[in-house]
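Here is one chain, start to finish.
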Amino acid sequence: MYGKKKINKKLVIVITTVILILLVAFSTILSRTYTPVESFFKDIAVSFNKVIMYPFTAFSSGKEKQNESYLIQKNVNASLEKEIAELKEALDLNRTLTEYSVENATILSRNKSYWFNTITLDKGKKDGIKENMAVITKNGLLGKISKVSNNSSELKLITSDDVNFKVSVAVKVNDTDNYAILNGYDKKKGLIKVSSIDKSVNVKKGDIVVTSGLGELFPAGIYIGTVESEEMDKYDLSKILYIKTKQDFNDIHYVSILKEKK
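Its structure:
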């Protein structure tokens, strides 16, 4: 009898976990805001991920062979040192972005199937986070807040394959702003794509690209990267630029969300 209760308890945990994962995956795939029900379950999933799963991870790590423990601890220490350094750099942004209050956030999870599309952050409505807020690191623009629940939010990266996600940018050529649109990412090259820049503009490798501020979605002047190469579009009417960023999109731990000061 006791054995059956124990099995049933494990079954309930497994089923609950699967349901939560499916709900989170479902809300991630759909390009829309959270419904109240999705927001509720998203918060539950976040809490589950932070509180319940940690002991299992720690227990699993503790079962490593003794002769490997030193290397494991060394890697953990190196990772912690790197994350602390990143956090300090993120906190420094508070002193440079005077027109905005900055909410620093930590990465909670990342869907491997949508690695370059979205990231879940540990800040939400209770922290004053709203949709369309710009998200940055010391290396420049990361993307915008696309969905918000009470305790978490979803960051849509500028590397997203969402064709509707466009950012107005300015390409600095000889101290002149030339406006264009950021709307793509070349995974093979690892470069951001910028289109619709006039073909007569003499763009050079190394020219700086920043947010333009047009459309009022993002503040002006946020660094994106530098021009790496260019090509003509298929109609031979304008140029497509490939932009090299300083950000490693495979290695993100801390971010800063820009909130307008009231």
